[in-house]
Amino acid sequence: MNKIDVENLCVKYKTPNQTFEALKDLSFSVKSGEFVSIVGASGCGKSTFLSVLEGLLKPTSGRILIDGKEVKGTGTDRGVVFQHYSLFHWMTALKNTEFGIQQAKKQLSKKEVTKLANHFLDLVHLEQFKNKFPSQLSGGMQQRVAIARALAMDTDILIMDEPFGALDAKNKSSLQDLVLELWSSSGKNKTVIFVTHDIDEAILLSHKIVVFSENPGHVYKEIKVPFDRPRNRTDIRKTRDYETLRAELIDSLYGNVREPEFEFALAG
Amino acid sequence: MNLKSAVFNLNNLFVILFVLSAFGLEDHLKRSAQNDYALGFILLLEVSFFIVLFLARKDEQRTLIRDTFAIISISLFVWLMLTAKLNILPEDIFKAPGVIVKQFLGDYLRLIVDIGCSLSIIVVGFALALVTAIPLGLFLAFNARTGRAFSSVASFLGSIPPVVFIPYTLALLPSFKACSIFIIFITSFWPILTSTMNGVLNVDSKIINSAKVLNLKKAQILFKIILPASLPQVFSGCNIAISLSFIMLTSAEMIGGGSGLGFYIQYYARFGNFTRIMVGLVVLGVVVSTVTYLLRKVENRFFRWKE
């Protein structure tokens, strides 16, 4: 059974002068326990799609089903890691994590919540930074806290919206490894929707890559990633499959953009 | 702690200069200088200088303390020279430091009563403004539309100087104390309200989204997310409110009061008693800066999470 079904999703934004179609007939599905990346140029409707999935935005038509039930608002079945501002900056790393757990698991006692929060902060290697405020942590550490919180909430679905987009290469790769490691150790029963514009990141992490295309946003292509797990970034890069996959992705990301420009140049 | 920099610094130099000139130089013929009181005062200052200096933990704090005390002792020295020793400033208006200290020691009991009067009015008026303006600002600005509408209304009403309400308060309220409390309330209310509303309206929508995806209810978002996120702005409104309140209260006391520091100054102004006017000025300055200092301490404690 599919975990997430996106069915003919349409979103239109109305401005005083015109309506802007952000998503048109967007359809695809995600299996339970699947790690799916969404890639696409900026303005292709990735963020709009995520807002609908998170329950922050109502679609104009169409729907998203989770376990066969239509998404009608936010819910504790989905944990989210944003690129910025996932954390509340007046709470320490520990308090932030506890706050998330309390929301997701109301039945737990204060003591159990603290224990759980400590455990997950240990998992993301922030033992010594639990009582620091976000402003005292580096960007990479802040994202670690956000990941710890999302994992500690133990939701079926984990939504990650360009979580490493603002990090430097070194931090980025260590966090990618961390996500892979934690996702495997969670019994691989978490469904992950991972939005990125980094092709290598998408290949390294996902089972399936969904390429969005713009004007209006729709699914351009779905690409399976064939590599076995556990994956190693240096090993898979050496394979021929990697090169073809990468070429295909680059082509589907930039190829369909280049064409109209070319025609325009000829016409002009 | 560097002993050398604690001994050899500008503050100590001028304290020594002050002591030497207080006793070494003759007072001007027309002046009564009360040098022994001045000496007592500067020694007290010097003792507190060393206490504060030894309590400080960071080097930058110690530098700040040395600099601040240096400014104080230089000013005292210049003041002594301009008044008692060289008689450059007119004798009847500008009194020597020792004269002020002696007068303070004579008056301090009633000054404490006056300070108590002024502070109690400020505290009550300010507290009333706090408990009304913050909730009101939160609720008005929680909805973006009412927030924007009432921001302009609030900035219009807030731009009216509170003094103009005095005729109304005098007509409507029974006592000077009630009037003053109301004026302080009005003075504090608008800055706190506008800053709360601005704070709420400026909370990043990304933070609110991040709270929404945690499935927080509306009331939780308001009290657990929006309130703490806008608290720094609320506090800056409180700072403005407190300084304005002191200005308003002192003026009110000078116009119509029967107690308080403003009244003390105004009362002796009628007799041309400049010694007591200066005592009042200095005490008022100390009280206001102590209150602002305490407020800043609370602020730092509250906002450890800011850079």
Q: What's the pLDDT, averaged over the residues of chain A?
A: 88
Q: Work out the largest interface and the residue count of each chain.
A: A-B, 26 and 20 residues
Rg from Cα of chain B: 24 Å
Q: Count the domains of chain A.
A: 2
Order of helices and strands of chain A: EEEHEEEHHHEHEHEEHH
CATH topology of the largest domain in chain B: MetI-like fold
> What is the mean predicted local confidence, pLDDT of chain B?
91
Oligomer: heterodimer
Largest pleated sheet of chain B:
none
Describe this entry's structure for a reader.
With about 270 residues, chain A is α/β, with parallel strands linked by helices. Chain A folds into two domains: about 1-75 and about 155-165 and about 190-265, P-loop containing nucleotide triphosphate hydrolases (Rossmann fold, 3-Layer(aba) Sandwich); about 85-155, no CATH class. Chain A contains eight helices and ten strands. In chain A, the strands form two sheets. In chain A, strands 6-7-8-3-9-10 form a six-stranded mixed β-sheet, with helices on both faces. In chain A, strands 2-1-4-5 form a four-stranded antiparallel β-sheet, with helices on one face. In chain A, a hairpin with a 2-residue loop joins strand 4 and strand 5 (about 70). In chain A, helix 2 crosses helix 3 and helix 2 runs parallel beside helix 4. Chain A is globular, with a radius of gyration of 19 Å. Chain A starts with a strand and ends with a helix. Mean pLDDT of chain A is about 90; it is low at about 255-260. Chain B folds into two domains: about 5-95; about 105-300, MetI-like (MetI-like fold, Orthogonal Bundle). With about 300 residues, chain B is an all-alpha fold. In chain B, helix 3 runs antiparallel to helix 4 (about 60-85) and helix 10 packs parallel to helix 11. Chain B starts with a helix and ends in a 5-residue tail after the last helix. The model of chain B has no long low-confidence stretch (mean pLDDT about 90). The chains are: A alpha/beta (about 270), B mainly alpha (about 300). The interface of A and B includes residues 88 and 100 of A.
